[in-house]
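User: Thanks for the earlier help. One more: Glucose 1-dehydrogenase. Can you show the sequence and predicted structure together?

Assistant: Of course, both are below.
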Amino acid sequence: MKAIAVERGDSRPRLIDKPRPDPDPGDALVRTLRVGIDGTDFEVVEGTHGGFPAGSDHQVLGHEAVGVVEDPNGTDLEAGQLVVPTVRRPPGDATEYFRRGEPDMAPPDECLERGIDGAHGYMAEYFTSPAGFLVPVPDAFATTGVLIEPMSNTEKALEHAYASRSAFEWQRDAALVLGNGPLGLLTLSRLQSEFDRTYCLGRRDRPDPTIDLIERLGATYVDSRETPVADVPAVYEPMDLIYEATGYARHAFETIDALDQNGVGVLLGLPGDDEFDVAGGRLHRKLVLGNRALVGSVNSHIEHFEAACETLSALPDWFGDELITDTFEPAAVDDAFSAAPDRIKTVIEFDSR
């Protein structure tokens, strides 16, 4: 079968041939329809995040997938059923996090991540998975199901952010998303029904498809070159929620300045080992005296995938079509992994429903 992988010592993804996998007992065989490309895939290719499966000279990429059950192999799934796989797997025997159904809360050394760290991904014509890590979804997601995994990360992140505000009556007036990439735009769409005013920060010039999408959603575009995060309260308004999806380390600290009283910032980006000076005492006081909070969040699990499916189902029909701007066949791997100013979300299409 065809697969897209990065090989040890290489810094670009390639189309390779691999044997079609045979499902173990408890596993189902899935025929891949589409796999999304996101920033993590580029980090894996560059070698700045994740790691190869033990004993393998390559890693199959991809963790945002949708496929069809080809062989249920005695599981409760049905042939032809549309499914989306989760990302994390136990490293051998299940750890306590997996046993209690919370793999998204496991530390990095107690889990594997398909297509990212220690396990092959889904960017292949077929893949196998334990049935318990496959989430059945409606047939309508055959083309947009690749958006469920990233949206599930938002569902988990917001769940934790909202939980930190659950002890009092929290006002949800204004929300700011840092980053106008696919995850930021998915999150912005999610927040439209919960906040009176929404903003999305980026660094792009008009005309730009992400700015068009931001404004079509009814949000305000904030150009960080004109208005840095810390200046947002003065130029626009203080924020009750800030969702960081840039991986720019300074944003974590600038978020504190941009939050309103009782506000919460949730951090999802993974920065490098950046070092810089911060006004630690002042920021500490703002957190304490303002009842503000910062929450970190990574990964998601079954219930978040299910919530993401409901959220995406409720969005306007045009949203998925405008977000997914480019679709490539596997042989066009070089083009798929190249940058283009008019792209938002890129997917690899292995097969159709």
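User: Great, one quick takeaway?

Assistant: The longest helix spans residues 148-163.
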